[in-house]
Amino acid sequence: MRVHIVRAHLEEDSGKLLHVGGGGDSLVSSTHSLGDYNRAGTPLVEVVTAPDLRSGRDAAAYASELQRVVRFIGVSDGNMAEGSLRCDVNISVRLRGASAFGTKVEVKNMNSFSAIGRAVDYEIKRQVELIAAGRGDEVVQETRSWDESGQKTVSLRKKEGLADYRYFLEPDLLALALPQNVLTELEAAIPELPAAVRARYASLGLAPKDVLLLADSQDVIAYFDATVAAGAEARSAANWIMGDLTAFAKQEKMTSMAQLKLTPANLAQLLALIVDGTISGKIAKDLLLELLSSGDSPRDVVQRRGLVQISDAAAIEAIVDAVLAANPKQLADFRAGKDKLKGFFVGQIMKESGGKANPQLVEQVLMPRLTGK
Fold first, then answer.
1. Where are the strands (E) in 226-372, listed by range?
2. Residues 121, 12 within the same domain
3. How far apart are CA 269 and CA 303, in angstroms?
4. Cα–Cα distance measured from residue 140 to residue 123, given in angstroms and rounded to the nearest whole number
5. Does the pLDDT at position 34 exceed 70?
6. Within a domain: residue 172?
7. More exposed terminus of the chain, fewer Cβ within 10 Å: N or C?
8. d(CA 241, CA 170)
């Protein structure tokens, strides 16, 4: 869906007053108002959207995309838990077929995407139920907050109109006209944005789920792009990065894919060894932990440990014949209808070959001998 931006304006965070009362445990003996200026002067930008969103899911998805954008362009870490990104949501409902929106209610300072979604859906349901029950006058313009423990919105303060927001015109700010060359330079400095990355990855034939995961953070994007640039097939690279490598990074509490000792070039080399038949996928999986820990060249490790895959048909035939001869009962049972024993024979062949037998070649040689055809 497309979400229109009404305005985006720059501000500075302000100080805030903290009102404390005197008491036995208080630092002061009487009621005082203290000024907290820890965040005063911190630059921020407020982005206001048009009423294009229709559900809590929509609102959460939009906020999540906005977080990606500010991270990609490097203006903020966008961490909601630390206050780097804060969201207020305005919710109003209207009768089906009506053109004007109903009374607006604002829910302030959402600190997680899931909370945004739940707060919006709760408020929609609350307003609809009041109107349906003939109590529409109870839907008033007000500020509410999200009560996480109660999973509901609660009223903070009523607002009658714009005056209650303390809006007033600024007489000393003039219109600023930027020269075209400045706009051109700024546009050229904008990095590839999340939507463009997703479109590019979709064109590579990646599954939608992989596209969303890969394009979610810049360090993963950089690692994936470098792996593909080094010659890896996109879908194979995506599977390894989003599977084994992401799991390892999470286990080791890494904050970036750049911390992996296995470089994108070496991952591409490992995948190339599978493609050209030098090693099997199983051997690659077995080697992965060593490669992640050492950062060594996969080709060097394979050569050093003698793990080159057996792709000689005569050698595979000899191993298969030896395994069948050593297991006559299982062979008879298979031919009697116990098809699951095929896995047993494959396992024995791989064990006999030290895991180096080419799986495709094993399949080609084994099946005619198992069936006797």
1. none
2. yes
3. 13
4. 12
5. yes
6. no
7. C
8. 52
